[in-house]
Amino acid sequence: HTRPFLDQYVVSRPLYTEDSFTENHEKVERKHKTTLDHVKQYFTCDSKRVKNAALSLVPIVGWMKMYRVKEWLLGDIVSGVSTGLVAILQGLAYSLLASLPAWYGLYAAFFPVIIYFFLGTSRHISVGAFPVLSLMVGAVVTRMVPDGGPTVNITGLEGLSIDDQRAMVSASLTFLIGIFQLGMGLLQVGFVVIYLSDTLVSGFTTAAAVHILISQLKFIFGLSVPGFSGPLAIIYILESIFTQITSTNIHDLVTAIVVMVVVFAVKEINERFKSKLPVPIPIEVIMTIIACGVSYAFNFKDNHGVDVVGLIPDSFETPVAPNIEVFKETAVDAFPMAIVGFAISFAVAKVYAVKHDYVIDGNQELIAFGVSNIFGGAFKSLASSTALSRSAVQESTGGKTQIAGILSAIIVLIVTLAIGFLLEPLPKSVLGAVVIVNLKGMLMQMREVPYLWKKDRLDCIIWIVTFLASIFLGLDLGLAVGLGVELLAVVFRTQFPRCSVLANISGTDIYRDRKDYINIYEPEGVKIFRIPAPIFFANIDFFRGKLLDAVGFNPLRILRKRNKALRKIRKLIKKGELSVTIVSPLTLTHSRESEDETNTEELDQPVDFSDLPVQVNWRAELPASISVPPVDIHSLVLDFSAVSFIDISALKGLKTALKEFIRIDVEIYIVACDPYIIEKLKSCSFFDHEIKTSIFFVTLHDAMLHILERHPPLSVSEKVYNNYPDKMPNSSSNLRSREKIVSKVDYLCLCVVSYLP
């Protein structure tokens, strides 16, 4: 037996203002912590906290205790070997992006992996060289140590070869990137990556893929192209390539094309039949072995002038201290690299954490990558992050933990120390071809542009601006421009949100935009205005403007008109030209009095009837050709359900706006306001004799029921009489007033003001 689905509900409860709700429902008394309390808690130390801190700093202790040897070990071994082979090839290829000798990429697949094994919280990412980060490092390296021109004057680089100088610059830069990442992790600012939206990262990485593609053309064509950096570097590289295109090495070109076609085809097969294949076909490794054999057999280097990887040392270099001069020159470049490297790795780690249901810690990831890059930089490793394709191999081949990562590092170690010499005849054009094929995923992100244009044009603009800025200004400036545009977009969305006028969906307590629905009910004389964003100094004027558009009049202008009209009526009564009668019809004569000049500040004050025997009915026709714009609403409801905060500047503007409506007898109601905002309004002296706490209602429907009780809908005959007051029986009243009475004398419904002949 299943419980029937309830498709309707009925609730019977009192009508609540915020005041009455607070009176009837007692709140829990909570002590709010002060800044001092938070500081004391942060520095409080006990055994439990020390244990938790130790476990969080060394996550391996946590997952190693629950390691399932029988279920996971075989998968980790297969994954580690597969990932290690891919990491070797990508390490060699990505070091070319950084304008470094190939073996430094192998270091990036070994040293950082060891540290991440102990400190990282992701179990599936493969740590090592990342093409975008390598390219950014390469831009700095070629700027400081150009191919042909003089090097930047840096102490400690004298007497070294170009390769050694570049390796030292790269190592120091990697060390500095690690320092920035470690510092951010210790300061618990891992949240900074939330400012890099998926749209921005997509546009940035697509532009980086274009940069990488163009940077590899010199290897594909076998040309000697100097390194360029800075704005328009991509244009200069293309210019240099096309001016030398006739010098293309045909052996490099043919080899690269064959490798690209075969690798691309097999990768498509891997993707299509991944559910049937036990492990993906390691086509890059296979093609690399074939290319090495062919190059060695036909002596490509000497016989055909093909540029090859060359000598790979059979040992690691001794650790070195970073160069402080390089720190000074590259600090501005290192910070965005630290952000980019972490953002990409964290995004990839988050994907696998969700897929395999475990938690990753952003701050700990910063610490792990920071220490990894500091340790790697000391051994002249290339800056490390993660590559999506390499991580995909580690996860898809059965990897369950970072044991797969440490096994991949062992594979790299074996190749580096024992069989690295076998890779010496490998043509660099093959590495370039492998890099280009692996760019497919990033380049295919261009397909997002039409989708973004249809769904969210502001996001599309962010993507395009980030992409173009990164293409033409360089990746560092492009990232800064993209981030600036993204923050401006956030400000734009918050400063100019889509305000709306709501109406009731007939037969329900639901209110929606009146433009979107057919069967709606909009009570006469009531406007419901929804504010869908925080109210702060930058958008308060926008909201006030939208509010005036919604009600169709300017309350301040009407207030001034009414005060001017009262001044004129007082003058006419004082001169004996006006009298109060209860007879009809009206007798009018034209006044020859000109409107006197008045002080604007006096006109902005509330209407004062204290010295008049009656209260003027502003909805009626006034004598002496006095004209005051009509007000066709008696109640204004502001829906604050989406308002998360109000700052002090906006609070003043809001108070002024509400008083303008109150002073022309429009009742104001604020609904669904956050209780903490109400408390802030109280603490900031928002309420006074004009604006009271009773205007706040718990829900929009509570306010509407209250309004309908105070202002029952008019009958058909009453609407006719309102529109044609001269047809009312006995002509004894020219308008039924539905406004609030604020006079010292009784309101005279039957009184009229007329001229004496």
TrEMBL record:
Compartments it resides in: Membrane
- Pfam families, sorted: STAS, Sulfate_transp
Residue ranges annotated as transmembrane are 73-96, 102-119, 126-145, 173-196, 217-238, 250-267, 279-298, 334-354, 366-383, 403-423, 461-492
The alphabetical list of record keywords is: Membrane, Transmembrane, Transmembrane helix
- Show where the STAS domain sits: 516-707
Q: Which GO terms describe its molecular function?
A: secondary active sulfate transmembrane transporter activity
User: InterPro entries this protein is in?
Assistant: S04_transporter_CS, SLC26A/SulP_dom, SLC26A/SulP_fam, STAS_dom, STAS_dom_sf
Which terms in the GO cellular component ontology are assigned?
A: membrane
- Note the topology in the membrane: Multi-pass membrane protein
From what superkingdom does this record's organism come?
A: Eukaryota
What PROSITE patterns is this protein classified in? SLC26A (PS01130), STAS (PS50801)
Report the main location listed first in the record.
membrane
Q: What is this protein called?
A: Solute carrier family 26 member 3, tandem duplicate 2
